[in-house]
Design a protein that fits this description.
Layout: E1 10-11, E2 14-15, E3 21-24, E4 30-33, H1 35-41, E5 51-54, E6 58-60, E7 64-66, E8 70-73, E9 78-81, E10 87-98, E11 102-105, E12 111-120, E13 124-127, E14 133-137, E15 142-146, E16 152-153, E17 160-164, E18 169-172, E19 176-177, E20 184-186, E21 204-208, E22 211-212, E23 221-222, E24 226-230, E25 237-241, E26 246-250, E27 259-261, E28 268-269, E29 274-278, E30 284-288, E31 291-297, E32 301-308, E33 314-322, E34 340-343, E35 353-355, E36 361-363
Parallel strand pairs: 5-8, 6-9, 7-10, 8-10, 9-11, 10-12, 11-13, 12-14, 12-15, 13-16, 14-17, 15-18, 16-19, 17-20
Antiparallel strand pairs: 1-2, 3-4, 3-5, 19-24, 20-23, 21-22, 21-24, 25-26, 26-27, 28-29, 29-30, 31-32, 32-33, 33-34, 35-36
Length: 368
Amino acid sequence: MPDAAGTPVLTDGAIEGAVAARVVKKDGSVIEVDADELQSVLKDSGFEGAEVILQNDLTGDVSLIIKIGCTLDLGGHTIHSDSKDAIYVQQSGMVTIKGEGVVISETNNALLILTGKVILEGGKFTSRKENFSSVYMATSEAELFVTGENVTISPNANSIGLGVYDAKKISLSAGTYSGLENTIIVSDKFTLGDLLGHTDRDRYAFYNGDQPVTGILGEKQLGGEVTVRPCNHAAAEYVEQEGTDQHQRNCPACGDTTVFDCVYGDYGKVDGQNHKGVCICGREDVRPHEWNYKNSGGESAKEIIRSCSVCPSEELVGTVSVTDDFTVPYGGTKGHVLEVTANPSDLVLENMKWSCEGTGAIDADTSK
């Protein structure tokens, strides 16, 4: 019968007067089941690949024993067991648990994975029993992948958050893990670093707030509250590889030791001949400027400016001027000289042309 608050209550594993779950089979057909029927569905190979969506809280003497590959959507509801493991996975396929919801055991593990692959996309898991785990990995056939950022594994004061006795694979790439001293405990077969779900593209780390936690990857126990997120390598050191144009990234937060080609970033001026770039590892790359030339000014005087195409260097090379207001009568050029003056005097001008009104271009190749 429902309790005083109207919540359906389990009596010997059966909900009275309420639908426990909606089951969507692989063929798209939908059925609604009570608690007893739900237990049968989760063990029946005919429901392999189904999505099970909770429609009510399940409380009391309850344990969802899952022996098929399926998706369990908590649907914002609570599974609260008074006397057993709240969810017990023992199958050879894949179980995905998603949605908002809470899974609690007062006397055992909130989620026990004996065999099979479990993906946690959502849910808050809590054991309230001393020496039991909110999520427990029991055998070498158990796999756990935590991928949902809203997943929370949170024990009470004396229980364990994530407990790992044995496992085939553990991959933490998201989630919040909180407790006192027993947030995560692993057996002698593992270290905390073994739990992080690195990929070819991303590496992951435990974070305390916004700071990656360092110095724990070889440990077997973690306390306090941490989240798992992609590592930002804020604590990494970059070490030059002798005899190469490469460096190695040594990150104490995620354990990365990848070797990269040096990248020199923005180049800056060293002097009038060279500029340099500095890699994150400290190696310097010194190269000659790559000059481009331009001029600016009026009709009779120009400033010659050069700028480097690699670094911000720009400087005045010199000035060039011609006889101001130079006028030559048509047919009377004898005795009239157009002077081109370069400053400094050793400035070499090449391929410069000056145009005069009424004439074509006049070559002005000169060293002065």
